[in-house]
Amino acid sequence: MFFLFAAPSGPPTNFTTIVVNSTRIDLAWNPPNLQQHNGILRYYLVVIRSATHSRTINVSASQFSIAINGLRPYTQYNCTVTAGTIGLGPSSIVNQIITEEDGKCLLFSKKNYTHYCVYSYICTYSKPYTSWAVNFTA
Domains of the chain: which residue ranges? Predict the structure, then answer.
């Protein structure tokens, strides 16, 4: 019996990106179509690029999502995922996202796929200090 192993001939499918906050995004995907595996999937390669930085992460073939932390606030990123056997297949579509600004929090509800923006401000007041001593006598 003879087996031919090659790089996948199709990209991961249903690739999604979710902005969680100013420094974190979540990525999720499905494997390539079974007919396009061309062998046993061994890993996924996730690539995240901004105008000034790039990050490449190897992910186990049994994992279909990842949280990426340590990103820069209010920065545009291009994200892709690629499946690998003995070589890399074609990359997924490029998902372009922008992280939130600092001081703002974006919450994601997996139940109803709704994004909520929450703006939080902390205001403090300090009574002005005066060192003048006033003595009123009649």
Answer: 13-119
Residues 6 or more apart in contact with residue 71 via CB below 8 angstroms: 22, 23, 24, 25, 48, 77, 99
8 A C-beta contact, residue 22 and residue 3: no
Cα–Cα distance for residue pair 115/88, rounded to 1 Å: 34
For CA atoms 62, 57, 15, 113, the dihedral sign is positive
| pLDDT tens-digit map of 79-124 | 999 999 999 999 999 999 999 987 654 444 444 444 444 444 444 4
Among candidate residues 74, 11, 16, 62, the one with its CA nearest the CA of residue 38:
11
- Two tokens, residue 132: 């003048």
pTM across the whole model = 0.71
CATH fold of 13-119, please?
A: Immunoglobulin-like (2.60.40)
Nearest one of 66, 73, 81 to 32, comparing CA atoms: 81
CA 64 to chain CA mean position, Å: 13
Distance in angstroms (rounded) separating the CA atoms of residues 36 and 7: 9
